Amino acid sequence: MKAATRNSWAPEIELKFAVSPEAAGLLLNLPPLKRARDLGERCIDSRYFDTAGGRLQRDGIALRVRRQGDSFVQTAKVFDPAGHTAFRLEREDPVAGPRPCAALLRQAAGSGYADIADGDLVPAFRTMINRRVLMLEDEDRGSRVEVAIDNGFVEASGAREPLSEIELELMEGGIGDLYTLALGMHRQTPLAIEAFTKSQRGYALGGGLPPAWSKVGAFALDPGTSLDDAIALTMGRCYGHWMNNQAAALDGRDIEGVHQMRVALRRLRAALELFAPWLDEGSRTRFAADVKWIAASLAAVRDLDVLHHATLAPLREAFPGDDDLARLEECIGNRRQEASRRLVLALGSPRYTSAVLTLGQWIVERGWSDGDPVLDDPAKAHVSGALNHVHTQVLSHGEGFDSLNAVTRHRLRLRIKRLRYAIQFVGPVFPGADPWLQALSELQDALGAANDAAVAGDLIRGCARPASGKRSLARARGLVAGWWAARREHLEKDARARWRAFTELEPFWGTAPDRP
User: Fold this and answer.
1) Is the distance from CB of 6 to CB of 94 less than 8 angstroms?
2) Using one digit for the tens of pLDDT, what is the confidence trace for 391-407?
3) Which of 213, 240, 278, 279 has most Cβ atoms within 10 angstroms of its Cβ?
4) Is the distance from CB of 260 to CB of 241 less than 8 angstroms?
């Protein structure tokens, strides 16, 4: 939804899908696009700029100059700091020619870029797009959506990559209207979520840094926040965290992308569980199943990343040049490539698109709000019981902690994570959450090391090799097992101490649950 004037930041609210030219042509002949007002086609030549060291990319800023007839427009874009997936912030300024103006960049992005001069901004890549534009208007709903069908290419460092996508940009109306349109189109011709922006494609093609990953922002509730707003803010923050890490997860060069996207989905499942008393059971169950399915594809990659970085890397350092560890590392690398391939297929599937769109619409339209007056009450009056419930589950799963086996401790660790997430979500409405978050984080880490050891063993056993390589693989397994065995006593002592420290905490949210 762009502002009518330039020279200021304005929100750009859009959904984007990868689609073949053939599928785009099919959609044009089906409602609702068939009844849209055709605004014609135009060729768009955009040049993107950055410093020689890629400073703007690192800071999450896309800077381009686009020719429009006989004039030029400089545009800066950043992701919305609030974390909503459909939002980016955009600023447009007229410039005299095809090169950017550093002074306008400073006006847009702040004094932190005062050291950048015009000559420091060098060409990074280019996009050439043939764009067909349609306008969909719904007078009854008061909505206008611009539909842009883009075909062209991105060009960087002498390489060229085709580009074909559909963008739905909200010009007027509610964000839910955007999701309604997208879901209708998806039911007619399956669409795939386009996780990469044009600038991310350009940087990847030119050998730049991988797409940036991001952690979740603060869950800034206060004692006066209503229960309805608490649910919306929490779900929206988790959903935005998920969406903002799609590109980094798919790119795969930085393992933190997969990790952050998986964490986002775990938080979302925890939120669905925490707020379950106020959610429709059918919707909650469906969304939880979709999130769990997506998370499974991420877990297959993440477990191999942890094995490589937490176990194999220190072992390779301790035994430099060891051929058996090198063969194991090669095997794990091959398995990661296959897991990454399956992840790409999952995130490009119709089921994934449906999950993203239906859950996104449910959140922005507050699909749980059914007129229940309780939702207007302060969240503080109702979430104590929800926290008690999750806390009780942790205590129950941890009964007899010292004698629990690895499988049971893993289940306990998952409950600990959910309690930590729940406190991050709603803890700000009470004083005294910080000691709990610290204790839960330390306990989770202590149990996580033991779980990493168990998963490492399972993954290595699944690394099948021809008979000629069995002996070297067995030796490598032995090295891994010995490395973890040397740490086992210390890890166990630490885990027991962390558990005792946790159980001594008094709930900061009110009455403590009955101990099992």
Assistant:
1) yes
2) 999 999 999 999 999 89
3) 240
4) yes
Give the helix ranges, DSSP H, for 348-469: 350-364, 380-397, 406-426, 434-461
d(CA 357, CA 495): 41
Which tens digits make up the pLDDT trace of 164-202? 999 999 999 999 999 999 999 999 999 999 999 999 999
Q: What is the mean pLDDT of residues 118-128?
A: 97
Question: Is the previous residue joined to 516 through a cis bond, with omega within 30 degrees of 0?
Answer: no
Q: How do residues 151-168 score in pLDDT, each as one tens digit?
A: 999 999 999 999 999 999
Residue 18 three-state SS:
strand
3-state secondary structure of 247: helix
Over residues 77-101, the pLDDT tens digits come to 987 655 555 678 899 999 999 999 9
How buried is 35 (Cβ within 10 angstroms: 0-12 exposed, 13-18 middle, 19+ buried)? exposed
Measured on CA atoms in the order 412, 418, 424, 429, is the torsion positive or negative? Answer: negative
Do residues 390 and 418 lie in contact, with contact meaning Cβ atoms separated by under 8 Å? Answer: yes
Please state whether beta strands 62-68 and 71-79 pair in parallel, antiparallel, or not at all (unpaired).
Answer: antiparallel
Angle between helices 406-426 and 434-461 (to 10 degrees): 140
Buried-exposed string 355-370: b where 16+ CB fall within 10 A, e elsewhere: bbbbbbbbbbbbbbee
Strand blocks (E) in 266-338:
none
The span from the CA of 315 to the CA of 329, in Å, is 11
With a cut of 80, say whether residue 323 has pLDDT above it: yes
- Give the chain's end-to-end CA distance (angstroms, integer): 53
| The pair of three-digit structure tokens given for residue 107, joined into one six-digit string | 């006006």
CA dist 427 and 434 (Å) reads: 9
CA distance 49 to 124: 5
137 beta partners: 144
How many percent of the chain have pLDDT more than 90?
A: 75
pLDDT classification of 468: cutoffs 50, 70, 90: very low
**For residue 283, which amino acid is it?**
S
pTM of the model: 0.91
| Under 8 Å between Cβ of 154 and 168 | no
Structure tokens at 230: 């608490």
Query: 249 near 296, Cβ under 8 Å?
Result: no
Which helix (H) or strand (E) element contains residue 290? helix 281-306
Q: Other C-beta atoms within 10 Å of 145: how many? A: 25
* 3-class DSSP string for 120-180: HCEEEEEEEEEEEEEEEEECCCCEEEEEEEEEEEEEECCEEEEEEEEEEEEEECCHHHHHH
